[in-house]
């Protein structure tokens, strides 16, 4: 059975989707972008600020569902351009133990929602 996960500590969806879906012991998050959940404003002052807020938003969704970054088995990173990879990778990497980091792909795409520079989604599982 699927359960909708919703928290006010992460941005509200901007379309017909939910922040995350829990299905049994698995959690599937929607892509998070750098929207401040308190103000609803985009934070794009720097790629570092943007990536940090994306990770904080993901953490809020994981927390609401009772998961942590340790439970993440797969992540998808979308960038507006591959030149941002190193800076985003550094911030992303701070949230994971390198020895147990999830599988991942990172791709550059033409345009992201609200013209942000980074969007990240994750899949997590509990044993």
UniProtKB/TrEMBL annotation:
Gene3D superfamilies given in the database record: RutC-like
Pfam families per the UniProt record, alphabetical: Ribonuc_L-PSP
Transmembrane segments: none
Family affiliation: Belongs to the RutC family.
Database matches in PANTHER family: 2-IMINOBUTANOATE/2-IMINOPROPANOATE DEAMINASE RIDA (PTHR11803), PROTEIN HMF1-RELATED (PTHR11803:SF58)
Name of the protein described by the UniProt record: RidA family protein
Organism from which the protein derives: Gangjinia marincola
